[in-house]
Design a protein that fits this description.
Number of domains: 3
Oligomer: single chain
Helix content: 25-40%
CATH topology of the largest domain: Uridine Diphospho-n-acetylenolpyruvylglucosamine Reductase, domain 3
CATH architecture of the largest domain: 2-Layer Sandwich
Radius of gyration: 19 Å
CATH class of the largest domain: Alpha Beta
Order of helices and strands: EHEHEEEHHHHHHEEEEEEEEEHHH
Number of helices: 11
Number of strands: 14
Distance between the termini: 49 Å
Strand content: 15-25%
Largest sheet: 5 strands, antiparallel
Shape: globular
Structural class: alpha+beta
């Protein structure tokens, strides 16, 4: 690992000042579970590492049924799934947080860091898309919000500009009769990276026999995580039936452009999109019914 300087700012203003002054050579450390490995293996360079865990806004975790969830970018994963209210309101997010590495990793890794690492196969991003989360970004020009489905621009790249950092992820409140789920397929336990990952969320009608609204997020099927918009919109007004979920899976395949690699051929990964969309919709519906 090459030498670098270390800084631990206590305010957002100080962090953006350091990032701007570094002129692109600084790297953010939240949990460190990605960046430390990348620096050690020479996958990234850093003249300076900026530890953001001392900034209060990045460690904020607040939830209310009326206002939704605000998740600081450096909040570790275990804080999410150990919170019963969050687990009930955003189950797909909890599904993701529980499988990002082992429990030792989850005591350090954050959902915000997982998003900023911007891997096409990131486990948290389909759930963020399904829950219609927004990324709150702060930089020299002020504050802006970016829909998560628009955050990643290429493998390992995202919309953050020089001097900017992710402060928090903002989730809208959930409504009655809503549910969500995330599932991934991995080739074996020793390769803890998704061949395909799918997050879905549904809002049912009052009678709980039709879908009023849905969102589907996909991972590991394109250079960036994808929002399956056509499939999501098609589900509105559809009955709760196996055929409905299967057709949504077929529509979701349209946004999948996977490559063939050591985890599987492209045709198989496209097939898995349909399988996992169907499975997660079934699970999300059961959760929406309170089961």
């Amino acid at each position: 690992m090459k030498d670098f300087t270390y800084a631990a700012p206590a305010t957002l203003q100080e962090a953006t000042r350091l990032l701007t002054a570094a002129n692109g050579s600084a790297r953010i450390l939240a949990g460190g579970t990605d960046i430390i490995v990348q620096l050690r293996e020479g996958l990234r360079d850093a003249g300076q590492v900026i530890d953001v865990k001392k900034i209060p806004e990045l460690m904020e975790l607040s939830f209310s049924p009326q206002h939704g969830l605000r998740l600081g970018a450096a909040v570790p994963c275990y804080c999410i799934y150990e919170n019963a209210e969050i687990a009930k309101a955003y189950p797909a997010l909890v599904d993701s947080a529980r499988i990002i590495g082992g429990w030792q990793i989850q005591s350090r890794a954050s959902i915000g860091g997982n998003l900023c690492n911007s891997s096409p196969a990131a486990d948290s991003i389909p759930s963020l898309i399904a829950h219609h989360a927004f990324a709150e970004v702060v930089g020299p020009a002020g504050k802006r919000k970016v829909a998560v489905e628009s955050f990643c621009t290429a493998p390992g790249r995202n919309v953050l500009q020089q001097g900017e950092l992710l402060v928090a992820l903002v989730f809208p409140p959930t409504m009655p009769h809503s549910g969500s789920a995330y599932e991934r397929f991995i080739p074996r336990n020793e390769m803890d990276i998704a061949v395909v990952g799918v997050g879905t969320r549904v809002q049912l009608n009052q009678a709980c026999d039709k879908i009023e609204f849905a969102r589907i997020g996909l991972a590991a099927v394109a250079p960036t995580p994808k929002f399956a918009q056509e499939a999501s919109e098609w589900l509105a007004g559809k009955p709760l039936a196996e055929e409905t979920y299967a057709q949504a899976g077929e529509l979701a395949k349209k946004v999948a452009t996977p490559i063939s690699d050591m985890r599987g051929p492209a045709e198989y990964r496209t097939h898995l999109v349909g399988v996992l969309v169907k499975r997660t919709l079934e699970k999300a519906v059961e959760r929406a019914k309170g089961k």
